[in-house]
Amino acid sequence: MKVQVLGPGCAKCKKTYDVVVDALRQLGENADVEKIDRIDEIMKFGVMMTPAVVVNGKVKCSGKIPTVAEVTNYIATALAEAE
Amino acid sequence: VIKRFADWLAFDKIGLAPKTHWGEGVDFFVYDIIKIFALLTLIVYGVAVIRSFFPPERARRILGGKREFFGNTLAALLGIVTPFCSCSACPLFIGFIESGIPLGVAMSFLISSPTVNEVALVMLWGLFGWKIALLYIGTGVAIAIVAGWVLGRMHMESQIEEYVLQMKVGNPQEIESPSWRQRHDDAVVYTKGILKKVGPFVLMGIAVGAAIHGWVPMPFVVRIAGPGNPFAVPIAVILGVPMYSNAAGAIPIVQALTAKGLPLGTALALMMSIVALSLPEIIILRRVVKWRLLGVFVAVVAAAIIVIGYLFNAVL
């Protein structure tokens, strides 16, 4: 599983990263969490509002700090799809 | 009802005498705070729900291939309903330019989006009344249209950083459209965030405003910034640039000064400048456009605000 947090490095993006780490820990799921702050990398996802959360290459949300419950949901969905 | 509560609290409960400095000051403070926070909660929540229907991808789709003047108008209007945060200014700009939206149209969006914001709207509505709030929206949109159009006419495409033009933007992925439940939850989180962020500034602004109501003599304000001073409007615009994050705190102060004789056009110019010309946004935009375009951008927007200021001073 690969989770990417997109954002140029503002306070909201850092918060989002923490939320993702938190959600993974609660799930006991091991994932490769990556923070992407280079604008050209962000644009490759077609995202225009940061922060955004990408799970296994799929944009799950953009333009807001998701809650832990939401991120848990994204990951659960991605896990189900992977099977 | 709120007025009566404030009167009761200030005069009966605390025992201050009406028509004294302290009495009037506390009365104003209590009344304004209750009204503003109630309005903030309602309006910010409402706006957040509306905005959940207008992600920037939609604005980009709508604006693609639109002609100049019509495109500017559309961009200025979309700027109101599309959620915006200054951290997203860069990806937004790149996304717009890359999909072939003209530079001037993108600029109209970037001017209108921060200018017509819900917090300023609430403060104006609560403190100045709905007519001024509408006037503010109208002039904000007008400035965005005209300034964006002028910038477009200047053909400064060469002033966009090269890497922006070469950048490959991925196709926006379809994010599941949120449910009503989701929209509500997001709006609640957003409203709480805003209240927490601007709350202290609102309190401070209203406190200073109340102090001005109670203590500052009218002739003083009129002498410095009144109709007799032809430079009041440009000075107000310059003063507004570094005050970016404190629109919520500045508006109550401006309102108090207006009650003491500050002309409304000058007051509007100051408030427009606070939100439309913000230092952090200018610095962020520097990453995607060169200094010359940035300078012209600031100059054109400032000029538009100054014109509006003089116009309202003359008409109102």
What is the 3D form of chain B?
globular
Question: How many strands of chain A?
Answer: 4
Main sheet record of chain B: none
Number of helices of chain A: 3
Please report the number of helical segments of chain B: 16
- Give the spatial strand order of the biggest sheet of chain A: 2-1-3-4
Distance between the termini of chain B: 30 Å
Biggest interface, chains and residues, is: A-B, 25 and 28 residues
Largest sheet features of chain A = 4 strands, mixed
Q: Secondary-structure element order of chain B, as H and E?
A: HHHHHHHHHHHHHHHH
Name the average pLDDT of chain A.
Answer: 86
Terminus-to-terminus distance of chain A: 12 Å
The overall average pLDDT of chain B, rounded, is 84
List low-confidence stretches of chain A: none
Q: How much is the radius of gyration of chain B in Å?
A: 21 Å
- Quaternary assembly: heterodimer
* Overall form of chain A: globular
Radius of gyration of chain A: 12 Å
Number of strands of chain B: 0
Overall description:
The complex is a heterodimer of chains A (83) and B (316). Chain A is of the alpha+beta class. Chain A is 46% helix and 23% strand. In chain A, strands 2-1-3-4 form a four-stranded mixed beta sheet. In chain A, helix 1 (11-27) crosses helix 3 (68-82). The two termini of chain B are 30 Å apart. The model of chain B has no long low-confidence stretch (mean pLDDT 84). By secondary structure, chain B is an all-alpha fold. Classes of the chains: A alpha+beta (83), B mainly alpha (316).
Q: Features of this protein?
A:
heterodimer; A: 83 residues; alpha+beta; four-stranded mixed sheet; 3 helices; globular; B: 316 residues; mainly alpha; 76% helix; 0% strand
Give the SSE layout.
The complex is a heterodimer of chains A (83) and B (316).
Chain A: E1 2-6, H1 11-27, E2 32-36, H2 39-44, E3 52-55, E4 58-62, H3 68-82
Parallel strand pairs in A: 1-2
Antiparallel strand pairs in A: 1-3, 3-4
Helix pairs in contact in A: 1-3
Chain B: H1 2-13, H2 21-51, H3 56-63, H4 68-81, H5 89-98, H6 103-115, H7 118-128, H8 130-153, H9 162-166, H10 180-215, H11 218-225, H12 232-240, H13 247-259, H14 264-276, H15 279-285, H16 291-315
Helix pairs in contact in B: 1-2, 2-7, 2-10, 4-6, 4-8, 5-6, 6-8, 7-8, 7-13, 8-16, 10-13, 12-14, 12-16, 13-14, 14-16
